[in-house]
Design a protein that fits this description.
34% of the residues lie in helices and 22% in strands. It is of the alpha+beta class. Strands 2-1-5-4-3 form a five-stranded antiparallel sheet, with helices on both faces. The protein is globular, with a radius of gyration of 16 Å. The N terminus is likely disordered.
């Protein structure tokens, strides 16, 4: 029996990201990510390879932030805000085992508006933005 891989080209909810976040003038792109770093959906203007890179990095960054919260006894991580010289990046929970990464067009973007839209999107369709827990294959070597 062969291995089954997730289809990261499907872009099932790309239209929704375009409608809710891509329509904001201060949003450069948005990516919906499984919590283990696989690309689920992306805004139309973001090439597939760039979206896959952002998915992997976004999952890693949120994982690091969650671990920092545990080590520092600061509680769970709600959102990561990364401030770059030319952009801002927000990463947050978007549904069961799903993350949402939003990149701005510039450093002066109104993050309150963007974060609010991210939260509305997650609340509105969170039940559709879910990935089942990944379970070990019955054919995978046991450790």
């Amino acid at each position: 029996m062969g291995m089954t891989f997730a289809n990261t080209h499907a872009n099932a909810l790309g239209w929704l990201l375009d409608e809710s976040l891509g329509s904001l003038s201060s949003v450069r792109c948005a990516v919906l990510i499984s919590s283990d770093g696989l690309l689920h959906s992306r805004t139309a203007d973001l090439p597939q390879d760039a979206a896959e890179k952002r998915a992997a990095m976004g999952s890693g960054l949120l994982g690091i932030a969650r671990e920092y919260g545990a080590v520092s006894e600061g509680g769970g991580c709600r959102q990561v805000l990364m401030e770059l010289e030319e952009r801002l990046c927000l990463i947050g929970q978007a549904g069961t085992n799903m993350l949402l990464l939003v990149e701005t067009t510039g450093p002066d973007a109104d993050i309150a508006v963007i974060a609010g839209q991210m939260e509305l999107l997650a609340r509105r369709v969170g039940q559709h933005m879910r990935v089942a827990d990944r379970l070990p294959s019955e054919h995978a070597p046991r450790q």
